[in-house]
Amino acid sequence: MKRLLNSTVAVLLLSGTAYANDSVLAETAKPEQWAIQTGDYANQRYSELDQINRDNVADLRVAWTFSTGVLRGHEGSPLVIGDIMYVHTPFPNNVFALDLANDGKILWRYEPQQDPEVIAVMCCDTVNRGLAYADGMVLLSQADTTVVALDAKSGEVKWSTKIGDPAIGETLTATVMPVKDKVMVGVSGGEYGVRGRMTALNLADGTVAWKAYSTGPDEDMLVDPEKTTHLGKPIGKDSSLNSWEGDQWKIGGGTLWGWFSYDPDLNLIYYGTGNPSTWNPSQRPGDNRWSMTIMARDADTGMAKWFYQMTPHDEWDFDGVNENILTDQEVDGQMRKLLTHFDRNGFAYTLDRESGELLVAEKFDPAVNWATHVEMDPNSDQYGRPQVVAEYSTAQNGEDENTTGICPAALGTKDQQPASYSPKTQTFYVPTNHVCMDYEPFRVAYTAGQPYVGATLSMYPAPNSHGGMGNFIAWDNIEGKIKWSLPEQFSVWSGALATAGDVVFYGTLEGYLKAVDADTGEELYRFKTPSGIIGNVMTYVHGGKQYIGVLSGVGGWAGIGLAAGLTNPNEGLGAVGGYAALSDYTELGGQLTVFELPGEASAAAEPAAEPAPAEGGTSG
């Protein structure tokens, strides 16, 4: 089954209509390649390749490896365009072009010279979520807020644009997304009082085309008070300003460090905004709009069509930046253009992506307890709002009071690690955190470039459960139900990949690459890589043979204790104590591991005559 938008791609390329960047549409339409981090504009992370399938995946073996030479956390994945693979690293954000036709020979390196002082203002490890490709250029976001376009063949810098200021806590950790003649880029730094925004750069030369802030005056946010809607109603004049006390919106967070999606037919880009600043809710009364919000914007102008705020007046650091996965599915007998979002707050949302209508909002981990439910009655004054449980409300309990047993923890039921979707099974495959916390807010003063958190946290596994800190689940976004769930010892911090071979891949913090049956969740294969996996699994074809690739290199928020050498349990915004046992299972070190089936390409295309048992592929 073709992934979403591929039928549209063919029409657009034939007609020459520039609904989206032609090179991106062309390259993502080739299943043998991996041209942008999300796999396609719909963010499905689904591959039509089926040479590796449920019948032969147990025979996978390591084909080759590549050391990045960098420690710290390796998020994102490589890209493959033609015969070249592009590999990125965390800070210092090196890029390697590898010749797949010549044993992975390094064709060129890009090694940016950045001020190492930027590391001090990177909240949760020095991660980078990967490269993008468009118009013969490889696009990189650097930690120091510089966006660079590199010639894909030579590595020559075509243009370079700085979009922020690390001196006030602004950094870049997310990938960029090329759309039409522009490049979309967010900014990180919500824990430093950064004011979040989306910046669109002109692809040709890197100049700024438009900029849309998450908070503040209407003109800064690129909204029309009468036409931009929230749950079907106009947001009204000064919708953001009216929801903050004084000028708190100027240091109000709402940063963009997750993933972007794009619908060429609607010409809308979709993304989520992060937590409000500070983490102490008493210092920012009101709904704090438009932090914690899914936004739909016109790709040409940046003008907002609709918003949906998932967690008004966030009291727990439940960022809303996670990916928005676009699907066309039947709802009540009618085909709908849908958007599915697995939020940090523990609720999975299904919306109509054209109108912003809320269709489903259900917990995707039964342990979630901070809210009973999201009100779904359009006639209620609480419509679309989570119904907060007073016992777990850090705002109601007040400053300097330790609110205990909140589920999920601040890193959410799912952080940025992206889910995948299979059109064959119409199922979402979701890496999750099964973690709770204690949270004590305190008064904090803002100083530019200094942490602006205002809370002390401790994290631990959800009580009265399987004892682990993660699950890998299959989710029905129409019914809002878990289909199956696999418990994991630690949070699943790797991005998933679903394939037409009826296999779903993901990685674990201990370092295992796992393959499971897309229908049942049965484990079919596992292999332990040299370090914990927080990278995203990808696939490609070269020489007629399908390969699976994943970056290992433990780190990120869950692995920050190992990555940064922290030992105080409350450090790492509470994660160090929660994941202290991780050091018993893995160690630092960045490596790309590529897997294949035995034999030549022609033989690899055939399923194994007698598949090995699930344990047969295990190593380590």
TrEMBL record:
Ca(2+) binds at E191, N275, D317. Its cofactor is pyrroloquinoline quinone; Ca(2+). Pyrroloquinoline quinone binds at E75, R129, T173, T255. Keywords: Calcium, Disulfide bond, Metal-binding, Oxidoreductase, PQQ, Signal. The active site is at D317 (proton acceptor). SMART domains: PQQ. Binds 1 PQQ group per subunit. Binds 1 Ca(2+) ion per subunit. One of its GO terms (cellular component) is outer membrane-bounded periplasmic space. GO terms for molecular function: alcohol dehydrogenase (cytochrome c(L)) activity; calcium ion binding; pyrroloquinoline quinone binding. InterPro entries: PQQ_b-propeller_rpt, PQQ_MeOH/EtOH_DH, PQQ_rpt_dom, Quinoprotein_ADH-like_sf, Quinoprotein_DH_CS. Residues 34-360, 491-548 form the Pyrrolo-quinoline quinone repeat domain. Its EC number is 1.1.2.7. It is an enzyme of class 1 (oxidoreductase). It comes from the Bacteria. Residues 1-20 form the signal peptide. Disulfide bonds join C123-C124. Pfam families: PQQ. Belongs to the bacterial PQQ dehydrogenase family. PANTHER family: QUINOPROTEIN ALCOHOL DEHYDROGENASE (CYTOCHROME C), QUINOPROTEIN GLUCOSE DEHYDROGENASE. This is Methanol dehydrogenase [cytochrome c] subunit 1. The gene is moxF_1.
